[in-house]
Write a structure and sequence with these properties.
The chain is of the alpha/beta class. It has helices spanning 15-32, 48-53, 70-82, 99-114, 138-150, 167-172, 188-201, 217-227; strands spanning 4-8, 38-42, 60-63, 122-127, 155-160, 177-181. It has 2 domains: 4-93 and 215-227, Rossmann fold; 99-213, Rossmann fold (3-Layer(aba) Sandwich). 43% of the residues lie in helices and 14% in strands. Helix 1 (15-32) crosses helix 8 (217-227) and helix 4 crosses helix 5 (138-150). The radius of gyration is 18 Å and the shape is globular.
Length: 228
């Protein structure tokens, strides 16, 4: 059975908390995959990737990213090549085939707990976006399209942090809604930019934790590693 290293971006300005979060996630995944060594690393934490790869003979690499973009296609492979890694890189978390079902359960449960009728409410996916990497937002829009067919929400909308349509503008035109951060980790955008944008827009609906924080995320990752 192949071992695996879960790799996330992390926070360059404050690496330790995100590194600890990915290491904890790896431990939860390992508990679901007896006999495999599962480790976690962020690219932002100096030496973390090399340490995670140490003494593992070409483990699989699981990108804990929401999109297939520059980091997963260019930067992560470059870092791995520098360390002499030859193993397989799996699809990122944001493209997991079971993620739409998980998100569907999350948002419908949240609406019920908040007393919101989805048929008259918006579901907002708050995503990163990028003014440089144009494909960064693609997975968020693809997820929104899938959720339109799976959930009863009146509208499923995407609001971005770093490019139009900005989250502030989407939230400002939402009367009733729920906002789900389409992010892997609870980093600066999730703790700062998203709540600030919603507050400025006067958005009063529930702001949920980042989807990657959900307890069921470990099960999705374990299943993806097992499929290999």
């Amino acid at each position: 059975m192949q071992d695996c290293v879960i790799v996330a971006h992390g926070s360059p300005s404050d690496p330790p908390p995100q590194q600890a979060a990915v290491a904890a996630l790896a431990a939860r995944v390992a508990a679901l995959l007896p006999g495999r060594r599962i480790r976690g690393a962020t690219l932002a934490s100096p030496g973390a990737l090399a340490e995670a790869l140490a003494d593992l003979p070409d483990p699989a690499i699981y990108p804990f990213f929401m999109a297939e973009g520059w980091f997963t296609r260019r930067e992560l492979p470059r870092r791995l090549a520098e360390l002499g890694h030859q193993g397989k890189q799996l699809p990122p978390f944001g493209l997991d085939p079971d993620l739409p079902d998980l998100i569907t359960r999350i948002v419908i449960d949240a609406a019920e707990k908040a007393g919101i009728e989805p048929e008259s409410a918006d579901l907002i996916l708050a995503a990163h976006g990028s003014a440089v990497a144009r494909r960064s937002k693609d997975s968020a829009y693809a997820m929104a399209e899938l959720l339109r067919g799976r959930t009863p929400f009146w509208r499923v909308r995407v609001g971005l942090i770093e490019e139009p349509p900005y989250l502030h503008d989407i939230a400002a035109t939402t009367r009733i809604g729920i906002c789900l951060p389409f992010f892997a980790l609870r980093a600066g955008h999730v703790t700062g930019d998203i709540p600030e944008a919603l507050a400025t827009a006067g958005f009063r609906g529930p702001l949920l934790p980042a989807v990657g924080e959900h307890p069921a995320a470990a099960g999705l990752i374990a299943a993806a590693i097992a499929r290999g």
